[in-house]
Amino acid sequence: MTSQVIFFHDTFSLMQPPLQMLIDEPLSVPKNYQHILALVFAVKGINESPQILWNRTLGFHILDSYSFAKIIYKATLSLLSTWHKFVPNYEYDGGNSVIAVIGGSVSETSAIMATVYSLYKIPQITYGVFSLPQSDQSIVSSLFQMVPNESEQYMGVVWLLQHFGWTWIGLLAEDDDNGDRFLQTVLPMLSKNGICYAFILRTLKQTYMDEYADLVLKQLENYPILMDKKANVYFVYGVFSSLQHLRLLMFFASVYSLPPLDKVWIVTSQWDFESVPFQRTWDIQGFHGAISFTVHSNQPPGFHDFVQNIKPSWAKGDGFIQNFWEQAFGCSLKSPSGDVNSKTSCTREEKLESLPSTFFEMDMTGYSYNVYNAVYAVAHALQAVYVSRSKARTSVRGGKVEVENVEPWQSITFNNSAGDTVRFNENRELMVGFDVTNWVTFPNGSFVRVKVGSLDPQAPLGKALTINDDLIVWHGSFNQVVPVSVCNENCSPGYSKKKRKGEKFCCYDCAPCPEGMISGQKDMDNCVKCREDQYPNKDQNHCIPKNINYLSYKELLGIILVVWAISFSLITVLVLGVFRKHQDTPIVKANNRKLTYILLISLLLCFLCSLIFIGRPGKVICLLRQTAFGIIFSVALSSVLAKTITVVLAFMTTKPGSGKRKWLWKGLANCVVLLCSFIQVGICALWLSTFPPFPDTDMYSVNEETVVECNEGSLAFFYCVLGYMGFLAIGSFIVAFLARKLPDSFNEAKFITFSMLVFCSVWISFVPTYLSTKGKYMVAVEIFSILASSAGLLCCIFFPKCYIIVLRPELNEKEHLIRRGKMKE
Asked: Which of 98, 138, 254, 313 lies in the 20 to 30 Å Cα band around 56?
């Protein structure tokens, strides 16, 4: 029993010549004869295999549609009638049965066939791209596609454009419904992914060649559009007619001496270099370096040898080989005539491998590979039917045998002889990836396909497209450098895009990033801020980690402050030692030795407490810094205030008739010191119990540094501590100022007045200086203020006395002091 497969061959068509001066006979596309050979090779392999169909024979019948709807409809309906009699819906069963139809290679042919075969549930397998509007999907219920969905390769093209940074491209699409659907699908994809089109050119749809040539001549008016210097990449909806349109356009451009189109052509899977006979000498160098997304194909074992054995008389019943042979080799298989214009006779020994690639390829092309797989899909589906019937349970009902219904087409999966797995998805589309192919052309009209990558739609996002840039051969005009196709130069890192008013978003100016912001990549829409622990570099193109900074013992400023603090501490100890050694001398006794010792020890601690401001602050250090400084300074100022009050009261009570002796009691000075110090201790205790200082980092004050510092917790308490010290200093200054005219031999009023003037000057200037500095220098300002104010007290109050004690001991006698006192009075 023989099962018939019908093969619609709609690209081996006869056309009128474009110009009578070029050729005077019908034209065909010789290259597409390989589709027929792929069909024959597949059927031959199936019939010779004992594993498939089990002694059943698979036959085929080929119909040429000539790419015209009227002929396609007639050929389609002829399959529904008896052979050689065109009576649709009437078929005489002669033993051969039509089990499937394969075809065609373009959507129009497949759609026309599907409108008829869907009514009869005859499986149809299309080996070319098939697309219909959503509203027409009902007619494809029994149609299977040997290519993936078109939109998958469109997304691959978008990823390819992004890979090379091409954002300004030209679009070419056929001027028909397919071209409209292409643009409706692609334009949103491009826009969503940051790609713009410089122009859209509608190529001519297939028609009679004499009309076609006239239309191409009119299209030359659009040639300057194709010469866009910014757009070096053109994305073409690459059907056969589009290729022919472009080749004719380039041919006429060369005739009129127009500049060549040296561009990168990106084309869809329908693209193939196919020539009709009169284009034998036409140059295809303009397409050198083109990139196409082709359905993944392979080479079945034995096909190359099978093709080499093809001769004009290789098989009976082949109605295509004579036309193919004559037009491919430019000779005649008929007996020579006396006409001087007749072709030379064919030797019938011509070699197919000698033909240019545009006329024939020895390796199986993508379309032919689809035909090959389509035939095997039919065979495996038929095999599934036979297996199901042999295993099906039958029951006799009314004397008839009923077989369970099976639909083998819904689950076709098999491995072909080339090692590829063939299976369909739920939409009856072949589940297979695309090969990214680089077309390398040669002056003799030949070319080679170089696989430079692949597209796997089922792969995770970001890994679907793989490209090997080093394998790609670009057009010679680019000097093997990756072409640039952008509206304007890319914005370098450190700049961001600034939209041009009234132009597409791919055309923009470049604006430098604002201070404190960066752009780390080309063509960033907006500059961004660095993380808190980083800062922009000079060029504002990347972030640099901030240095951890604080006032350290190892840096010069820290060393200088430490030296000063230790030096003043040693001087204070030396002064204390002098006063302790001469504690019984009049000048020491006259100024309350206990208050003097308290003041000197307080000043010593003031110098030493400045050291805790140096180094990396910790939790304990932060708690101690301001509180220790505030309390110690308050004790020192309280001692100065107590000394001044004691001196004033002492002179007031020594005046004759004074009634104020009761104010001068022994513990007065100690009470003043304790009371004034206790108030400061209370403020600090309240501070520590409510909003205590803690270690913190300042990311913003200094651009390039992360400053480790003590957060004061509450600035209000901090300024309260400073304010209270200022209150004590001003009080001491006022009292000392009032007592400045008392006899010098018995009081320190003048020295205290001057020391308080120095102290107040230092701390008044401290506040604005502290607020205007940043980072570690704020700490340095406070340390300097501590050292300067403490040194002012030490020098102004004690250095004059040390001078007398050490260098003028004769002045440190009671008689001299009494004598000087009387002289003052």
From this structure: 313
